[in-house]
Amino acid sequence: MKNVPFKGVIAYPITPFDTNEKVDIDLFKKLLERLIRNGSHGIAPLGSTGVLPYLTDQEKEAITEATIQQVNQRLPVLVGVSNLTTERTVHHAKFAEKAGATAVMIIPMSYWKLTDDEIVRHYDTVAKQISIPIMAYNNPATSGVDMSPALLKRLLEIPNVTMIKESTGDVQRMHYLRKELGEDVAFYNGSNPLALAALSAGAMGWCTAAPNLIPELNIALYDAIQENDLRYAQDIFYKQINLLKFIVNKGLPRAVKAGLAILGEEGGNLRSPLKPLTDIEKSELKTILEKSKHGIENVIG
Amino acid sequence: MKNVPFKGVIAYPITPFDTNEKVDIDLFKKLLERLIRNGSHGIAPLGSTGVLPYLTDQEKEAITEATIQQVNQRLPVLVGVSNLTTERTVHHAKFAEKAGATAVMIIPMSYWKLTDDEIVRHYDTVAKQISIPIMAYNNPATSGVDMSPALLKRLLEIPNVTMIKESTGDVQRMHYLRKELGEDVAFYNGSNPLALAALSAGAMGWCTAAPNLIPELNIALYDAIQENDLRYAQDIFYKQINLLKFIVNKGLPRAVKAGLAILGEEGGNLRSPLKPLTDIEKSELKTILEKSKHGIENVIG
Amino acid sequence: MKNVPFKGVIAYPITPFDTNEKVDIDLFKKLLERLIRNGSHGIAPLGSTGVLPYLTDQEKEAITEATIQQVNQRLPVLVGVSNLTTERTVHHAKFAEKAGATAVMIIPMSYWKLTDDEIVRHYDTVAKQISIPIMAYNNPATSGVDMSPALLKRLLEIPNVTMIKESTGDVQRMHYLRKELGEDVAFYNGSNPLALAALSAGAMGWCTAAPNLIPELNIALYDAIQENDLRYAQDIFYKQINLLKFIVNKGLPRAVKAGLAILGEEGGNLRSPLKPLTDIEKSELKTILEKSKHGIENVIG
Amino acid sequence: MKNVPFKGVIAYPITPFDTNEKVDIDLFKKLLERLIRNGSHGIAPLGSTGVLPYLTDQEKEAITEATIQQVNQRLPVLVGVSNLTTERTVHHAKFAEKAGATAVMIIPMSYWKLTDDEIVRHYDTVAKQISIPIMAYNNPATSGVDMSPALLKRLLEIPNVTMIKESTGDVQRMHYLRKELGEDVAFYNGSNPLALAALSAGAMGWCTAAPNLIPELNIALYDAIQENDLRYAQDIFYKQINLLKFIVNKGLPRAVKAGLAILGEEGGNLRSPLKPLTDIEKSELKTILEKSKHGIENVIG
């Protein structure tokens, strides 16, 4: 049996910056603690939400260590270690393992579109240098390469590639993974607006930045599916769909930061060229958040 | 309250041709009777499956009359009356109403991409000439125009446009329809591989040619959703997904005809330029059908 | 050597309707005469511009006969005979030949996406029933099927398929046709904004509705290329690019009709669901036309 | 008048690596010298061809200095300084200016899709810190963001943004730039297979890695256009189109390295995950190169 240490709602923290655009580790830990206390089933630093590609090696290492320390074994930790070069990916994967990560997530970043063989060799090289499991992540919108189901199948033949995160937003990919790769394959949804469809299709978990803003609704959706209560899951989903779409459309780091401010929480600054939402966008988000909160009281409270 | 006479599995018959490529009305009635007896909740002649655009006006009228006669009020009948010109659409809509159709389905066929205003005027002109409800059908792959959610909202303001069939295959459209247009809006899924996701999202019915081949599985899926049993729905769906994908990929008229032959049923000929599946494709279909049938026994029988 | 009776600017007339949306043959002939007198090198009735798919069989036949009669052998005539069914395509191709057409143009219309084999068989069936040459027309935006260069190569093996009209708007297709199929292959540009690039790439002609409005500029562009004067061709092209883009974006029948009115010419009505341009669009067209006319005087006059 | 120091064929060197995947500066200089001697009109290190995003800051600086030194004012030098963060982009732009670069090239790299305002602010921040001109580079395939013509227009309002490189491969963008932004705007073609169409449309230069392999053909094409000899330009273009398509399809660094080996030149290694072409691909490239060389003799020699 493959080593699959994640299920449920896997929460993605943002990486906050101070006014000089330096990483603010203290604030990062505070934001992490919120996610843990609000019921997330796993924590995933250095994802897209955490603006991984905008950080230096030293910053990535500091974030990795801060996460392991703050989580302190209360939840499994999935560290993003993706890099354009194989050499740097190996470096960060080894660092994460040594620091105590439960698993690493790797997306095949590509400036030059990689061939299938290059991608397999990339994962294989990293996999041989670590003992913890790898989640292969498919997100053509950010990586520039769309890993076909056939390629994902090849990656799963590497012993410690045990999990797949799919963010194309196409539910047919979920069907393929389940139908063709067997019920054993652990696949996770990375497309927020697809949460209901993906969990209905059998996804083992949901990788999401939404718990920074509406953790109760996210977890209630997952629980409803677990309890085989589709009708309730549908209700809960329609309470959060507008928020899920908004944060994806505006970019997760920008939207989460703006949402935290609306909730009265400190979220820090962004690193340029990323800039805050406009006032109109913030006001739109405020309305959506309030309606969602109202939904929480009605449905859960 | 809007007049919404359809729910559940709405079955689409093929239009069979004889060896001279003339419509075979007797065989059509036999195929219709199979669909009725196998438990369909509605019948929809002259859809894409029924190769509507390849027929003459006289042939369309003969099929309409044959359907009403054969169904004989046992089920509601949804007649396709789409045409490139408004004048012909009105003609066929009036004919269908007079013949006894429960409702008509209209897709905005477009050689020249229509503007939103032209589409609204097209539906409005037809709607004013009939009293039965209209199902507006969105399928950019065949019509050449993708009706935005905003346009669908405008169409629903026309009193007898009461139903929407969505075939883009994007579950987010379903979410929009339910969330933005309210729980009253009756929307139907027209994309076979999206059946589980669409019904999970609250679709009122499923417009499909699949009951020509695997009616038990199609109806069992709908029933499981009705009984709020997601886990069983998922099982049932994964038994039929390969068949659903196959018939869509190969073209419904070709695939249904080939499937009928495999099941030992007479399905007639196609009209040129459409040609039968190749032997390799037929053999692939045979394997998929057999596995589905095995699925039926295991899950239902 | 293949029979290739067309080169240069092949002009597409609109099909005008009267106030009852009936075809107005007298007006059609008047519009045809303008195109002939303004220097077009060929005439192509029943194209997209002529709203072929919105016409009845009788109307198509009347237009065919009116064209042959009016042109009266002054120019070669290319009659559009495309139809969804093979049987009707054969019918209209034979009619056109008998009426005196120089060649026929056939696009593989497809409601159900046709396979390559079906398309080849479709063309082959028609080709065997006529002696005049066939222009194969690729325009995925209106036909729903994109014929690959490999498929076009197969079609050219049919003896009387001697010409290819490419309307994808991708100049790389032109390069392929010239490079892979040899200098003998006669290919024509059907994408107006691609006129300069296509003629620079070696296209033998330009199939266009623009001569209804700016014949001098269209013909001057072709002539400049013939005279190997790229710099002048570039100048002439930039005088007309805005008009070419406008008529494509708004739909050729709508835009040509509006342009004729601006020029003080009778253009008749459209057939529903097609509707006239809005006042704002007409005013935009007026400005573009005036600037083009100014361009003509400066460059040519 | 804007400061536009480039025209003609701007050659992109690869960045060669040794067997330990370290940058090989000596070999880089040798490759640079070949490009200079073979007639290029400008040199552009640290482009996509030079695998900019796979290099460390130190490596980028070493390449910049080596280029300035080797070129030694024989040709203008365009240094790529793009980076995900604004801070690093400023750093490298200032470094390039100080080192003696003629201009810098900046593509708005984006992991998170940038808004138009963010992109303008990004360029503006960099522009204010340097005095040399900036070439704004649009290539959605590698940057993840497609700068609209309207956005490019805004960028050109920044005083030292004086040049635009377009790599979408859509010739209509060239038309827009010339028509809407005026004859003053210096735009360059970055899509190799579009070379003929772009130069015919008035592009001021061609940014290309092809001179690493077929400099005579590249320069002959540019010269023919300058001499207003379209017919010869067409001939020359068709001699090289297959090579241009091949190097783009296979990825410029991989293809150029393989091509150099075929020509008997040392090209060094690639950095992982990028891997060499397969033997079949190399053999295909050999055939294409030989046919091109034959073309050179026939047409030029």
Automatic annotation (TrEMBL), chains A, B, C, D:
InterPro entries: Aldolase_TIM, DapA-like
SMART domains named among the record's database cross-references: DHDPS
A Pfam short name: DHDPS
Binding annotation for pyruvate: T49
Molecular function terms from GO: 4-hydroxy-tetrahydrodipicolinate synthase activity
Active site residues per record: Y137 (proton donor/acceptor), K165 (schiff-base intermediate with substrate)
Membrane-crossing segments per the record: none
The keyword Magnesium appears for this protein: no
Keywords from the UniProt entry: Lyase
GO CC annotation terms, alphabetical: cytosol
Family under the similarity heading: Belongs to the DapA family.
Protein name: Dihydrodipicolinate synthase
